Amino acid sequence: MSMDFHDTDPQETGEWQEAIDVVVERTGVDRARYLLQKTVEAAAEAGVEPPDTHTPYINTIPVSQQPAYPGNLELERHILRALRWNATAMVVKANRKPAEPGGHIASFQSSAIMYEVGYNHFWKGHDHPNGSDMLFIQGHTAPGTYARAFLEGRISDSQLENFRIEAAGKGISSYPHPYLMPDFWQFSTVSMGLGPIMAIYQARFLKYLENRGLSKKAENHAEGRKVWAFLGDGEMDEPESQGAIALASREKLDNLVFVVNCNLQRLDGPVRGNGKIVQELEGNFRGAGWNVIKVLWGSGWDRLLDDPKYGKLLRQLMMECIDGEYQNFKNKGGAYIREKFFGKYPELKAMVADMSDDQIYYDLIRGGHDQAKVYAAYHNAVNSVGRPTVILMHTVKGYGMGEAGEGMNISHQQKKLSSSQLGKLRDRFHIPVTDEQVEKAEFYQPAADSPEMQYLHARRQALGGYLPNRPQNFETLDVPDLSLFEALLKDTGERTMSTTMAMVRVMVAIARHKELGPRLVPIVPDEARTFGMEGMFRQVGIYAPEGQKYEPMDANDIMPYKESQKGQLLQEGINEDGAMSSWIAAATSYANNHKMMIPVYIFYSMFGFQRIGDLAWAAGDMLARGFLIGGTSGRTTLNGEGLQHQDGHSQLFAGFIPNCMSYDPTFAYEMAVICHDGMKRMYQNGENVFYYITTLNENYAMPAMPEGAEEGIIKGMYQFRKAEGKAKQRVQLLGCGSILREVIAAAELLQTDWGVAADIWATPSLNELARDGAACARWNLLHPDQEARKPWVTQCLEGAEGPVIASTDYIRNFAEQIRAYVPGSYSVLGTDGFGRSDSRAALRAHFEVDRHYVTVAALKALADQQQGSKAKGAITAKTVLEAMAKYGIDPEKPNPLYA
Ligand SMILES: Cc1ncc(C[n+]2csc(CCOP(=O)(O)OP(=O)(O)O)c2C)c(N)n1
Ligand SMILES: [Mg+2]
């Protein structure tokens, strides 16, 4: 049907509408909804396309269904004044300093009431018997959060003074960063789009814990724990923001509330100047099955909208106006609104003839600035059962900032208000500060015994304490000794396996452990079979909130696809962003649910950091604890798959995140030692680190752990084998991941073909070696008069003889990182360049990292050292050429970097 369908029979239309009114009045909204549903079904059967999912441009909750406001509006207004003032003063003050550290005023001014209604009436703190709500606060409204914590006495005057001036340790962070303020912020939200997707998976994780019996479900749904995510309308353009909304309704996350601040603006200008963002979002969310509540107009409009004669025309006009116009109205003032908005229809202009320009401007506010409307929406949201809620709040960006930035395109970045602009803000909100205080942008703290301060504290005490807050009373888990993974420490003899299989065995061992078992959260994005994890389907079950309502086709197999309400494994489907968000929820559960969990997210390493890098960064910020496993890693290990699948760089991405420990092991015992150490550090000692471990899909026999290798494995390097006996020529070979085995083979070639002894070093963490090296260099720089510290690499290699050659399945920069700490000559081989499909052997030759290239590189390094030597048995350029000829290496072969 065309949207412009002409109403050929208004009388008939009116009768249908009246019929609905009568049903609502007599039997309520649920019955009316049911009737509509049935009518739509009947129409569809007759070939009528269903109407679209949009409702008129008015508040979803009619005045008749608005609950009475339970708070003291006058006192709340007093609190708001202090908040608006302090949030502004904080930014203005900071930017009078030479550093001009920035900050935002306009966004908090537009959302202040949305937060206040929550703090005063809804959000449960950590002492609430049902547990605390989780607040994903819009990142750049942080000044508002600090302003409240200041009133509450949780942030000091001097901290406010040092907003965004953190380096000296006195300040507070620009945005929500748990890493920087670990007892305050819980969730990092400022990278747009991550807040919404992480909030969805947090809500899902709460249900997971409840369904698995690891946390208790509230008896009264409205008072159960909720996840509240505050989002910008501009932010909703991020694919991550709306990309997971279907999961929220599919899993019936009625513990989730999105509040989208529709101030119609983003940073540069309008979000949808030519359209209506609220309507667009309504359609998307309603289509996805959410409870959608529009809060568009403040109470001042109620009388006009209910006007029996012209209310309908006003509603039509509201729908006709586009966002670019709405933004302009609020910027230009009451007279302009009279002319350009109401003036579009003479009847409407007449309707407001008795109102002054000021009344039009100040009384006809948007819904998000009206406590009663916001309260009604929140009340509806917490009572909504069976589906998540999104509240679309219509507001003005820079509300109250007037000429300094109300509804202006520059509002977002306005941070330097003049004294006269500050004075106007003060007057507009009746903030009790003197001209002198305005001049100095001084903070305002109402007296401790003032009614508003008593009210503020009383409300938070009634709701279970202050928020945001990240109490430090975390539980710890007892981790048994390394024998937990005993099976992985032994020689496997003829039996072959991959490190991926070793990792699965690690998980199985954890799952079988009485205390640790229930805490394990295996997470996969549709690749469990790739990693040989299908056995876990039955062992721990796949989480499905509704259980398994069908008989799986493989019910009679030994490893059936078993879904269950108490299932432990999170099968996220082909959705790396979602799986990572799930992992973050589990990895921060120790802090947010006071339940330490052991999440293991296993994925194709190429679809890891490169895909979800920003979430991994946020995980570091949120002090996540858990394991990320990059399966099928290495540029040459995944034969056949080609350019998109072959990862030669994820280790470097991981190395960028300061609290991410990264390892590239080769053998099962390394895997066991690394995982065990990780579990001790994270779960027993409570360290804020997480692990990235790359695993391989190549099967080979696993040797036993060399005596005393543990310390070196953890530090990133240990001697795997020392060439026995005395030799004239000696080299030191380094390798990790899949290429260590090529390095071991090269040692044999060097010995048998060239009489060169090669000591072999495994380097399961070049990243950790580099960090340790840099830390020593830094300490030495700052302590020139003290005995120098020696990096672990240097300690390992300083007594060793001959040049050092490293080869890995990663780009050269990976092994290059340790060059400064390697004594003497150091040659690096690596897999720079796009991958391609072929066999492992062909790929390793193509990228020049295999046993032959390691051998040639070792001979070349020796030849360079012995240049001009006439000694018998000296290695020369000729020897290198001979070796190339022997191994069939074409010196004119194209450079794989560009091939
Ligand atoms: C991924 C990402 N890109 C860009 C930014 C920079 N940025 C911060 S706020 C903002 C505009 C936000 O507009 P909106 O979401 O509508 O929030 P409002 O301030 O209007 O409430 C931008 C582009 C960011 N923080 N994250
Ligand atoms: Mg906006």
UniProtKB/TrEMBL annotation:
Residues 716-850 form the Transketolase-like C-terminal domain. It holds the Pfam family PDH_E1_M. Mg(2+) binds at D233, N263, Q265. Its EC number is 1.2.4.1. The keyword S-adenosyl-L-methionine does not apply. Residues 489-703 form the Pyruvate dehydrogenase E1 component middle domain. Keywords: Magnesium, Metal-binding, Oxidoreductase, Pyruvate, Thiamine pyrophosphate. The keyword Chaperone does not apply. Residues 78-295 form the Transketolase N-terminal domain. Its cofactor is Mg(2+); thiamine diphosphate. One of its GO terms (molecular function) is pyruvate dehydrogenase (acetyl-transferring) activity. This is Pyruvate dehydrogenase E1 component. It catalyses: N(6)-[(R)-lipoyl]-L-lysyl-[protein] + pyruvate + H(+) = N(6)-[(R)-S(8)-acetyldihydrolipoyl]-L-lysyl-[protein] + CO2. InterPro entries: PDC_E1_N (IPR035807), PDH/Transketolase (IPR051157), PDH_E1 (IPR004660), PDH_E1_M (IPR041621), THDP-binding (IPR029061), Transketo_C/PFOR_II (IPR009014), Transketolase-like_C_2 (IPR055152), Transketolase_N (IPR005474). Component of the pyruvate dehydrogenase (PDH) complex, that catalyzes the overall conversion of pyruvate to acetyl-CoA and CO(2). PANTHER family: PYRUVATE DEHYDROGENASE E1 COMPONENT.
